[in-house]
Amino acid sequence: MTHFFGGMDSILGHRTARRRERHAHVLHRLCEARNEAAMQSIGGGSADTPAPRAPRTQRRTARKPAGGDGGDSEGEPAPARHSHVRALVYSLDEVAQAVSLSTGNVQKLVREGSFPKPRAMSARRVGWIVREVEAWVDALPISDMLPPKNCGQRNAA
């Protein structure tokens, strides 16, 4: 007895069979590589057998910049440019982490007008200027409230 999706069954079955075949081929290559490595570690195996190939994603070579490698002709790499760049703009998560508040509290303070407003960086991206956030932190009043006595203390057992 055939069911309603009988035609689709053969198509899906072919696709899953292809995936199973590909998976079996990859497992076979991995087992061969592992066995060859084990044989070479105990002194067996053929010396002229090539090393197993890396997965396709790891075989890709890094692209060179259009202007060459930037180093000298003796193969030395070019010095890294902009090794440390200070952030100029914070995202919501970054500004919340910088001022030790939750993202919800940051948004609430912005709505109330007591926190710097974000700047529109593009049509769908906003950010807080680091200098403005630092000035807001510097302008906060000094608190007379001390942390509780048990803050940071473990119970003595």
UniProtKB/TrEMBL annotation:
Residues 40-83 are annotated as: Disordered. It comes from Paraburkholderia bryophila. It comes from the Bacteria. InterPro entries: AlpA (IPR010260). Gene3D superfamilies: 1.10.238.160. This is Putative DNA-binding transcriptional regulator AlpA. GO terms for molecular function: DNA binding. Keywords: DNA-binding.
